[in-house]
Design brief:
three-stranded antiparallel β-sheet; two-stranded antiparallel sheet; mainly alpha; globular; Glycosyltransferase
């Protein structure tokens, strides 16, 4: 009998409980296992046990970040706020879901202490971007001369989750301080939303500052990725601290993303000028467009993730404008299904582009990265519970889950490949972990799937 999962009311209350490729994986799952049992096995035996305690740095604090394809520790072990905060979030949620496993709560406290003692800039406030293994800011890193709001958002997100798990008032006070630092320094009172990059002491940068040092003009733009993760962080914090200013900012980000960033077709624009005018190279030459795909494309993974984040924010605000939000979220999921999923083997593709000559969306990057598959699984299953009469969502979830088990999950070494092996077989040798590859996207999806399948009765 599969152990029952503690259901935590911290997320949406509406949760209910092919062809082969060149390097097809052998699944560890029996054909007789239910979906719930498969998800449980993947979460506990292939994710949490693989990552912890292996990644815990018991000498210098925080978490080791770089591991080879077969989980051998590598020499370089820099520590980024995004990765460290995501570990804290994941461990806090794991401690709530599996309270009998005391290691998760203990490791979460270890993670919290590192954010408090090392990642936070005691002089100027805000979180450092990148530290060496010992916990010293890397002076050679350009982002340590700055404060990236994206990284600070994950700090707030993680601290709120840790407080919800531990009840430690100091953690809530830290989360409040981090939120206020972001809001005081990065909020745009004129055009709404937040700037993405500040100086080390919290001044909004413009094109006259650090121009020779900054590697990309995107430092000067507002952007979708910072915005959706601020929404995510504010939602998490609002669950435990329904502050009036926080609610105002949460609503502001909610409307900015839902009503301005999402295009009429149902995809997110990526970068913006200060007045939220999208950066677009659509009317440029093909060569210029291709040179700027990094800042102007359709990101299917972010779209299907944001569909979920908007619904989560609406729920936190007591189902604020819920039906309108559900319609917009469904449009984003439907756009991804129609344009961003491989029709042969499944798998969410990396990038598309609407070419001006025919208004047809073309795939400009066919990678199927691990985190997009995770976000797709989460949203597709969620929408299958919203619209059981429409078999599309269940069908696409089933296809994507099969794809993930076949081409993304490493059944030999544990963990997930960086990209699907069907299109990028070289990913079999890629690092299993680095500062941009942790276990937050897939952990959140598996937590949610475990709850949803339990409530739906899909377990024995």
């Amino acid at each position: 009998m599969l152990r029952q999962v503690s259901v935590i009311i911290l997320t949406l209350p509406f949760f209910f409980a092919c062809q082969s490729g060149p390097e097809q994986e052998k699944s560890q799952y029996s054909d007789t296992l239910s979906l719930h049992e498969e998800v449980y096995t993947e979460l506990v035996d292939n994710l949490l046990i693989v990552w912890y305690p292996r990644t815990i740095d018991s000498i210098y604090g925080g978490f080791l970040t770089n591991f080879s394809h077969d989980w051998q520790r590598m020499e370089s072990q820099e520590k980024m706020i995004v990765t460290q905060a995501r570990h804290l979030w994941t461990l806090s949620k794991a401690a709530q879901m599996f309270p009998e496993e005391g290691m998760y709560a203990e490791a979460a406290t270890h993670a919290y202490n590192f954010l408090r003692d090392k990642m936070w800039d005691q002089q100027d406030g805000g979180f450092y971007w990148l530290l060496d293994r010992e916990g010293n800011p890397l002076a050679s890193n350009i982002d340590n001369k700055l404060k990236r709001v994206y990284g600070n958002a994950f700090g707030v997100y993680a601290l709120a989750a840790y407080y919800a798990m531990s009840g430690e008032e100091e953690a809530l006070e830290f989360a409040q301080k981090a939120f206020r630092w972001i809001d005081e320094h990065a909020h745009d009172p004129k055009n709404s939303g937040y700037f993405s990059t500040l100086t080390k002491d919290g001044v909004v940068i413009d094109s006259s500052m650090f121009q020779q040092d900054l590697p990309s003009p995107t430092y000067f733009y507002k952007d979708q990725n910072t915005s959706i993760h601020l929404l995510e962080a504010f939602t998490e914090l609002y669950h435990v601290w329904p502050d009036e200013l926080l609610e105002e900012r949460l609503r502001e980000m909610f409307h900015l993303i839902r009503d301005r960033m999402v295009s009429e077709q149902g995809y997110l624009r990526l970068y913006f000028y200060d007045n939220w005018q999208p950066i677009s190279y659509k009317d440029s030459t093909a060569a210029v467009r291709e040179a700027n795909y990094a800042v102007d494309h359709v990101s299917f993974g972010h779209d299907i993730e944001t569909a979920y984040l908007l619904l989560e924010a609406s729920e936190a605000l007591e189902e604020y404008e819920y039906q309108t939000t559900l319609n917009r979220a469904r449009q984003m999921v439907d756009h991804t299904i129609a344009n961003g999923i491989d029709t042969v083997r499944s798998g969410i593709l990396e990038r598309g582009y609407y070419l001006p000559e025919n208004e047809q969306l073309s795939i400009v990057d066919d990678r199927k990265n691990w985190w997009s598959q995770a976000e797709g699984l989460n949203s597709l299953y969620l929408f299958s519970t919203f619209y059981p009469e429409d078999s599309t969502y269940q069908k696409e979830f089933d296809r994507l889950w099969k794809y993930t088990k076949t081409y993304i999950i490493d059944h030999e070494n544990g963990g997930w490949y960086s990209n699907g092996l069907d299109t990028h077989s070289s990913s079999k040798q890629d690092r299993k972990a680095h500062i941009w590859k942790g276990n937050y996207h897939n952990a959140r999806t598996l937590f949610n799937l475990l709850r949803m399948t339990e409530r739906r009765g899909e377990h024995s």
